[in-house]
Structure formats: structure tokens, C-alpha cells
Design brief:
Elements: E1 5-10, H1 13-29, E2 33-38, H2 39-44, E3 52-56, H3 64-73, E4 76-79, H4 90-97, H5 100-105, E5 106-111, H6 114-122, E6 131-133, H7 137-140, H8 151-161, E7 164-168, H9 199-224, E8 229-233, H10 240-247, E9 253-255, H11 261-267, E10 270-273, H12 277-284, E11 290-292, H13 303-307, E12 310-312, H14 315-326, H15 334-347, H16 356-372, H17 379-400, H18 409-415, H19 421-435, E13 441-447, E14 450-455
Length: about 450
């Protein structure tokens, strides 16, 4: 009996695609055929794709509609949340990113680690769906056994920039790719929120203060180290032109967002961030991340990325830390190192032992046995799902040409640039060469930016 198809969409190519392709390879070894690629393009073709176990990338309100379509078409949903590693509190996370329809549509939930699982169980909308602490394949890509995958890119970056400092920004809510989608309004004055300000207003003041401090930092750091390259890597959702204006006329500063962040973290001397997932990634990779915290707040700071980084609280402290790193005299104490490892274990599963892709493949096999073989929705329900998928497709096509719309084709391709079949197969072959696996795993083109990954017979 043929195994179920698995659909594994990626919204952000540089962040997610390599990891999800690795999951597809692990599934291929178990006899599954997976469809991987651009989430937008997969959704545009969803009525034409085979019934599957669908690996959802989040459970927020924007996924409610597609979750309903998938269910009517007979797909079985398992879900993770790519943004469930970093949040203010469980309650703010649940309010912002857990929507009952999408949350309850999943037959299984796959958590980054114990804290993510605990947050889901605290939701008033949690109805007992099995939760598995699988970790995330993005962490697999950072484990020592897979770091050779990035070796050529790391060497290319070192040749290109020499010794460089990376500044990673995450200000999409303040500085969106499309200005009309900037969700956080700039404060009327750049000091402190008015007395009695609500949570959103207080957060806006706090984040804008940090945003402005980072803009001020760039020329100062560049002037202090004129022979060191400074690379500003904005978040994919940000307007990069803002940072190009900051860097204008400064010869040793470049504003770039190219490829997966892992080789950039491995090649750089340090990464400077504030509450950014890249701080965690740099720490997992054995780097020396710096959390620049010119403003602090128990209420509004994202604790995990900062707590596994070297924290500095003003410009002078930051410059001193960068000096120490560039002069190879930076060290972390034993007690502090153990504290950081303990913190990380609370949030991240699969940093050692079995990889996250194997744990996720276990979940998919379990769901295949418990849910996939059940009776499909009736033909009337499936026809309704097909009609809803086609209507959504037409709306997406119309919106793709609308300026400043979140479905605009320029923004879609900004997050997931076109990728061809040879590059996908090249990645699979590289995984296989490093791990001694996947020798018979092959990719086939399904449509633009959509590929089927399976084991050749």
C-alpha cells in the first residue's frame, strides 16, 4: 500500500527551505513522497495536489481560511509554529499567534521544546491534541554534523568580506517592506510613553527607541573599525531602503539579505541583535552573539535571545565588547556558559541525540496510521473545498498585481525567490554526502517553485 503524500510549504526560503527539504529527505527514506516549495505557490495549486498530510507552518488567524480548505479537501494537518520560539509571555503569544480554527484543525502539534508545548497546553482553546516536542529542522541545519553543508558559503563570505561584524535587525512591524503594512505607529516623541499608555503604545515606544539606537549605532561602529566590514542584514519583512540610507556614504558598511543566515553567522566575528532569533542561532552555532539593549523593559523585551547572548546596555559597552571580540580577548565564564545551556534546554529540543527531522517523521507516521486512513470527506464537502481553493486562488492572483498588498508578487518573490530543480537536487546530494544517506532520493519539478521529493525505485 502506498504511503501518504506529505506537503511541506515554506514561506521564507532563506530561513525555512533548506530545513524542510531535509525533512522531506528523511521522509523519503521511509517511503513517503513529499511536496516542498513556496507556500504561496503550493496554496495556489492546492486543489490540484494529491490528498496529503500537510505540515502547517503556523496556527495563527491568517491560516484559518487555508486550514478550512485543507480539511474540506481531505488533507490531514499537522502543525508547528515557526515563530513559537521567541515571545514576550505565554499569554501574549497565545493572543497573537494561536487562533482556534487553525489550532484545532491540527491532528498533531510539533513544538520547538518544553516551553512551546507548555504554552499550547495553557491555551483556553486547547482540546487535547497530541503535542510532541520534536524541535525544528532549522536547528538540525545548525548541528555540528550538518555544518559542512555551509562550508563553501562560509569560505566565500570570508574571502568577500574578510573579518566582518554582522548586525541583524528585526523591525518589520516598524519598518515593513511595504510601508502601508507597518503595523506599529511611530511615537509622537522619541522619549517615553505617556502615563497610563496601553500595552501596544508602550511596546511601540520601546521598539522604536531600539530601532533608532540601532540606526545611530551603524555609523559609530563603522568609524571605530574602518578596516572591518559591517554587514547589516535586515529581516526579510523589512524595508531595506531604510538601512541603505543609514549606510549611505560609509564605505565599510553594506546592507544585504542573501541566503540562509547560518553561513553568515559562522563566517562573522559576531552578530549584534536585540531580541532576535539569530542571537539564539549564533549561540547554537558556538558563536559570540551580542544583545544590544539600549532600552530595557521586563514587559517588552524578548528574553530568550538576549539571555543566551552577551548583553550590553549602552553604546560604550557595545563598542568595548566588539573590540574584545575583534582582538580575540573575549571570554565567557563557566557558570554563565552552563546557565545559558540550561536556559536553552527549556526552549529547544533536538539540539543533540536524534535530529528534529527524525522526530517529526515519527509524528507524521503516527498521524498517517491514526488519521490518514479514516474515511475522507464526502464528495459534496470536497467539491466545496475545491471551489473555495479556486476562489482563493483567483483572489491571490488579483492581489499579486496590487501595489503594497501583502500578496503582491514582488513581496512573495522577496521572501521566496525562484529556485530551479538542479539547485534542489544539489542540496539533496549535499545532505547525502555529509550524512551518508539519501543516495536514492530524487527531486522532480511539479510546478514553479514546487517539487516532489521521493526515493527512486
Amino acid at each position: 500500500m502506498a504511503r501518504a503524500y506529505v506537503i511541506i510549504p515554506s514561506e521564507n526560503q532563506s530561513r525555512e527551505f533548506d530545513a524542510k527539504l531535509l525533512l522531506a529527505c528523511a521522509l523519503a527514506e521511509r517511503g513517503f513522497s513529499s511536496i516542498v516549495g513556496s507556500r504561496n505557490d503550493i496554496h495556489m495549486q492546492i486543489a490540484r495536489l494529491p490528498r496529503s498530510i500537510y505540515v502547517g507552518k503556523d496556527i495563527r488567524s491568517s491560516s484559518n481560511r487555508i486550514s478550512g480548505i485543507l480539511k474540506r479537501l481531505g488533507h490531514v494537518i499537522v502543525a508547528l509554529d515557526e515563530e513559537a520560539l521567541v515571545y514576550f509571555t505565554h499569554q501574549t503569544y497565545l493572543t497573537a499567534r494561536v487562533a482556534p480554527p487553525a489550532f484545532q484543525a491540527a491532528a498533531a502539534l510539533m513544538a520547538w521544546g518544553p516551553d512551546n508545548a507548555e504554552a499550547w497546553r495553557e491555551s483556553p482553546h486547547y482540546l487535547g491534541t497530541p503535542i510532541y516536542e520534536t524541535g525544528n529542522p532549522r536547528v538540525d541545519m545548525m548541528r555540528p554534523e550538518l555544518r559542512p553543508f555551509f562550508a563553501a558559503d562560509v569560505e566565500a563570505l570570508k574571502r568577500r568580506f574578510g573579518r566582518f561584524v554582522l548586525i541583524n535587525t528585526n523591525f518589520g512591524t516598524l519598518n515593513h517592506f511595504f510601508p502601508n503594512l507597518t503595523s506599529m505607529k511611530a511615537p509622537e516623541r522619541p522619549d517615553a510613553p505617556p502615563p497610563g499608555a496601553d500595552w501596544e503604545t508602550g511596546l511601540a515606544y520601546h521598539r522604536y527607541g531600539i530601532f533608532w539606537a540601532f540606526q545611530k549605532l551603524v555609523p559609530v561602529l563603522a568609524a571605530r573599525h574602518p578596516d572591518t566590514a559591517i554587514v547589516v542584514r535586515p529581516h526579510p519583512s523589512e524595508n531595506h531602503e531604510t538601512w541603505r540610507r543609514v549606510a549611505q556614504g560609509i564605505p565599510n558598511v553594506q546592507v544585504l539579505h542573501e541566503g540562509n543566515v547560518v553561513p553568515w553567522l559562522l563566517a562573522s566575528q559576531t552578530v549584534i541583535h536585540n531580541g532576535c532569533t539569530t542571537g539564539i542561532e549564533a549561540y547554537v552555532l558556538g558563536g559570540r552573539p551580542i544583545a544590544y539593549r539600549p532600552l530595557t523593559s521586563e514587559k517588552y523585551d524578548l528574553k530568550l535571545p538576549n539571555s543566551v547572548s552577551h548583553e550590553v546596555f549602552d553604546e560604550a559597552e557595545l563598542l568595548a565588547a566588539v573590540d574584545a571580540i575583534l582582538e580575540d580577548r573575549f571570554a565567557v565564564g563557566t557558570a554563565q556558559a552552563e546557565e545559558r545551556r540550561s536556559i536553552l534546554r527549556r526552549y529547544l529540543a533536538a539540539t543533540d541525540g536524534r535530529m528534529a527531522v527524525e522526530r517529526m517523521a515519527d509524528v507524521i507516521e503516527t498521524v498517517e496510521g491514526s488519521h490518514y486512513g479514516q474515511v475522507q470527506p464526502g464528495i459534496g464537502t470536497r467539491l466545496m473545498g475545491h471551489a473555495a481553493a479556486e476562489w482563493r486562488r483567483m483572489q491571490k492572483r488579483r492581489n499579486a498585481s496590487r501595489p503594497q498588498h501583502k500578496s503582491n508578487v514582488a513581496y512573495t518573490r522577496h521572501r521566496f525567490p525562484d529556485i530551479d530543480l538542479p539547485k534542489v537536487q544539489q542540496r539533496i546530494d549535499a545532505y547525502g554526502g555529509i550524512l551518508g544517506r539519501f543516495q536514492n532520493v530524487r527531486a522532480e519539478a511539479v510546478d514553479a517553485n514546487i517539487f516532489q521529493i521521493s526515493k527512486s525505485r
